[in-house]
Specification:
EC 2.5.1.129, 7 helices, 202 residues, alpha/beta
């Protein structure tokens, strides 16, 4: 069972993060969720969701939302839970995705700031040589944004802006979301059937 940490920040694009969590659980992964206060605000704006401020209550909310059993391999950690497994290189898990990722979070990760658990978890993934995928949602990118992304890419971090393709003839917003989530799952080597692959006959 792979252990994947999913960080949700206050950038636009929370439908990507929610769908990612759903697909990781469906694929049999153990999922650890980190979320910021700004993500709570965006969840209400984009999805009409009111997320609890306490990690344990948010875990219950996610289980109810995704109709998961009580023993589903899902845990939520607060931003100051420094004894969480992903805070240490001795237990980093198999991968981490920050989806969506604000430019502020990306800059903090690039600078190794580690002022909260999300930033520390990302720092651990980099130092341990584990898969870290950042899904930055901003337009246009400034030179500073691009410099931070290049710095991280040179460290082996995957920079995956949520830019859906259209060659699969999407018919809904869900199709566009699945396109991006499929690319994230591919980076994590997590199997899925979200869309037909290029060159496959359908």
């Amino acid at each position: 069972m792979k252990t994947i940490t999913v960080g949700l920040t206050g950038a636009s694009g929370l439908p990507y993060g929610m769908r990612l969590i759903e697909c990781l659980l469906a694929a049999g992964c153990r999922v650890h969720v980190l979320y910021t206060q700004a993500a709570q605000i965006v969840a209400r704006q984009e999805l009409g969701y009111t997320w609890p401020g306490r990690a344990a209550e948010f875990a219950d909310w996610l289980r109810e939302h995704f109709k998961l059993p009580a023993d589903a391999p899902l845990k939520v950690f607060g931003q100051q839970e420094w004894f969480a497994p992903m805070a240490s290189g001795s237990n980093p898990g198999d991968g981490m995705v920050v989806c969506p990722c604000t430019m502020g979070a990306l800059a903090a990760i690039a600078a190794g700031v580690s002022d909260n658990l999300l930033e520390r978890a990302a720092d651990v993934m980099i130092k341990e040589g584990k898969k870290l995928v950042l899904v930055p949602r901003e337009a246009p990118f400034s030179a500073l944004h691009l410099e931070n992304m290049l710095k991280l890419a040179r460290l082996g971090v995957v920079i995956l802006p949520p830019n859906p393709g259209f060659y699969h003839h999407p018919k809904s917003i869900d199709d566009l979301v699945d396109f991006v989530v499929a690319r994230i799952l591919d980076q994590l080597a997590v199997p899925h059937q979200l869309m037909q692959r290029w060159g496959d006959e359908g």
